[in-house]
């Protein structure tokens, strides 16, 4: 008998013997004789009881068991392979004669189905672990590499087998050829055609039986409804007895379903990345890369279903998307370059995730944060430094524990002085209304920490919280600035990230100070759409103007901006504050980390919900981000990190914007108070009635104001249906004192160039175009609800075939004080003529239908010098013209 050289190896197998664990070497290496075959008596006996892989020598190594695939119409084959550095010939990987996976000499994976083949265009690298999978359903075969769909093949016949076909690993089933040269591990066979998502969830982790369901060994989540009975063979290579690898779908060793191994003389510790595990400090690719174990570190970043365990200090300057992420105790991953860390399945944080700059943590709808996580995230955000100014906050984290999530916080517990972002420290607190403007750490006044939870919208309902008062996830709070010399102060939120469903409650017509509860941007559109059963669909954002310099309410300079599904309008100053200062900053669609805002209950109120489907990676300097936490020139800034690392690897999430017509009109009061209104033509999404989410009800009580009027209801934003040039939209005006006011066009979106925009003065009958210039008019003190309307034609469209403006002339002779109207239309009669002051006061009205129509002469007396409006009512319509009396 030929001697076999046994070389002791680092691989250890633990066997229970006499109540003690004893160690045995089971890695058997020998010099392979190329003439050996499966009948050779040089076969070494292999016994394994630990995670391992098998090495197939490309000469005579293989495994075999009785065929079983012919009984199934749906099949999935999968496993891990690594081609040897000497791989150069065709190699059979797994399967039976009519359905199998192999790798050809050009290192392309091939799936054979009956007599047809599907060959991958991907060329495998040697000495690199790959997960390969093939699915069969009916006559369609699909191929996946590392969980990524590669291609598919459709043939016209169903699976057929020969009677003597076996299921083999490492060589063809019917003859001794195409021996595979390389490593193999974790072979699974299902009697189901697995979906892409099911395959991806199990690529980078082993699977276990969870009360009859298939569960991941890392994420502990059931996999897409798969029952364990769907797994008909599972050769983990962890349990091998007398050269038989156990089918681990069975709880007991079953030789009949095990796979008999021949000439397998190298068995070593498992290497395939289940999951990826860092080996050293540095960037993620470098930290994971392991040439000795054939692990390609870049794969952890390439495939968004990767599962990664952080055991070192990692810095990441590119977006990272994964299915599973585990950060070990006292270990850290720092996201640089304003990047995204996105988790799609399972997240456990026992260490630290540091989200520097505008970096964000995204957890998608199926992502779960392990409640036993005991670590934290750190995320910076800036607020106004002005010590007189409120910032409306909402924490993206809850307090640190190891048992629950979304359990709430205190301001002092989670909000830190981030003056040095690399070393956040506790804030110092005082109880008085004023805090020192220079201190280290910064000192803030706890007096200004308030909440406003589900109460009627009156000022007295603010409730004090203080720095140690309990707040729930999703609740907002107010806090004034530090008084630092810089315009903004950096804070760092430190705690356990909020994730998943977070609920609040608001009663009918009440207000609730809420806020973005996540360490990522919140899509206001999605939040509104999903909660219209409880809220009125408008969000209100407070902004204290930078010019504010008092704690006294009556002197405040600031106001509330609004946002709904049509768009946003800039803040205005409500009654009770000074009315001074201004802002043109309009709230965008995406609400940044830490931003608080009001929601208001609809007619019934109820529970509203935040959830992960509302989250996106949108940076604060995006033009569609809410501007209230953004410096005026921040859009144009490219950070030093982006210069260093580039901007092609930190792209934001894609989203679509609507292309509806939108028009913003403005009102300037006699004392320069500016109100902006927004109307959007939302086609089938809105009606001409009041629609939740599209019509923003006016909730202020301003001294000077403008608003849309819809059957007496005041609106700041109006969502209309399809654009109609003949539609009119009534406007209400409120003035505290008589004086000159302006109607302005503040902006348009998706409005055709030839669209006219008018303010129609129904009193004078004049149409004032605001497309290229403001409309100025003197108005008396009080509310005016029946005079002005927004329209898109100047009234000529209602006169049928007549051009009244050209055929009816109006003139005034100052010498005789006569008003002369000449009607040149024989089939149109002028019925009445009225004269008005520019303020809309009626001076005189004449019935003239019986007068000579081509020369109507009307005496005007006791009228002061000035500009007046003459309105002519005819049987074909009305026209108005200006006259000047000297």
Automatic annotation (TrEMBL):
Pfam families found in the cross-reference section: Laminin_G_3 (PF13385), Por_Secre_tail (PF18962)
Key word Signal present: yes
Domain LamG-like jellyroll fold span(s) in chain numbering: 73-197
GO biological process: carbohydrate metabolic process
InterPro entries associated with the record: ConA-like_dom_sf, LamG-like, Secre_tail
Keywords on record: Disulfide bond, Signal
Signal peptide: 1-23
Superkingdom per UniProt: Bacteria
UniProt cross-references to SMART domains, sorted A to Z: LamGL
GO molecular function: hydrolase activity, hydrolyzing O-glycosyl compounds
PANTHER family recorded: CHROMOSOME UNDETERMINED SCAFFOLD_146, WHOLE GENOME SHOTGUN SEQUENCE, OOKINETE PROTEIN, PUTATIVE-RELATED
Identification of the protein by name: T9SS type A sorting domain-containing protein
